[in-house]
Amino acid sequence: MTVVVIVLTLVVMGLTAIVFGLLRAHARVLRALAAAGIDVDAADPAFRLRSPGTAADAADASAVPDAPGPGVGPVDLVGTTLDGSPVQVAVSAPGTTLLAFLSSGCTTCRSFWERFARPGPVVPGGGRLVIVTADLDEESPARLAELAPSGHRLVCSSAAWRAYEVPGSPWFVLVDGEAGRIVGSGTATSWRQVRGLLADAVADAATRAAGTGRSRADEALRRAGIGPGHPSLYPTGPRTGGTPPGSDRPLTGTDEADRRSGGDSP
After folding, report:
1. Which of 31, 48, 204, 234 has its CA 20 to 30 A from that of 259?
2. Secondary structure class of 31 (helix, strand, coil)
């Protein structure tokens, strides 16, 4: 009996040491996360990891809508203004819209806040700028009030961050409202880089549109039964080998010599 008690005591002591070891390891992990600037909200049943300067929520993946992505229809913005009033912005309206996903706690975003506060157009071609932050309870309302430019719309919407799958701030999405599609998206550390991204996105969209137009024209001709060599494409008849338009005989060597000498025979 004494042996059994001794064995059980040793087992309990071993389990106690293991539990203390796990608690110490967990404490080290929490300290490392705090040093990295990551807030672990253990009181939330969803146990979200929230990082400053990013889309605040990592909500249940089943509740997150599919990201529109380049070439797919954009999603309208639904959120609040700085004073908490509900607001909805239709990005599918005619014209070009640049969505700037910024944060009040993002150091890199500071230069963009300052740039947007200056007078004058921001988006090339007369487009509009809409600044999108996370919800007010995930931002600093006082800081946003200082940063928000008076000449541009600002929407507080974490749902928009999730809908567009914004990985972090700053993040920019260019929307062609008339075509109802996203031209391009990306991140940058300076406004000069953003302008370069805008120029590349517009050029790529124009190239794709031109290719689509040619493909549609070819498809329309095929449906009408018009293909290469069809008489309707050649009013004087289809061209072959060395036969110029309007000629019934092939081009001979003498004709070629006459053409080169201006038509004068020796």
Report:
1. 234
2. helix
pTM over 0.70: no
Contacts of 131 (CB under 8 A, 6+ apart): 100, 102, 116, 148, 149, 152, 153, 154, 155
Element (H, E) at 12: helix 2-35
Which tokens is 211 given?
């290719």
Q: How far is CA 154 from CA 84, 132, 137, in A?
A: 12, 6, 15
- pLDDT tens across 154-168, in order? 999 999 999 999 999
Residue 75 has pLDDT above 60, yes or no: yes
Distance CA 231, CA 117 (A): 62
Beta carbons within 10 angstroms of residue 119's beta carbon = 7
Locate 109 and state its tokens: 């975003």
Contact (CB, 8 A) for 151 and 183? no
Nearest to 152 by CA among 129, 124, 184, 125: 129
| Overall residue count recorded for the chain in this entry | 266
Interacting residues of 62 by C-beta distance below 8 A, sequence separation 6+: none
Kindly list the domain boundaries of the chain, sorted by start residue: 61-212
**Rg (Cα) of the chain, in Å, rounded?**
33
Band of the pLDDT at 8, cuts 50, 70, 90?
confident
Architecture of domain 61-212: 3-Layer(aba) Sandwich (3.40)
Q: Write out pLDDT tens, residues 234-252.
A: 655 555 554 444 444 444 5
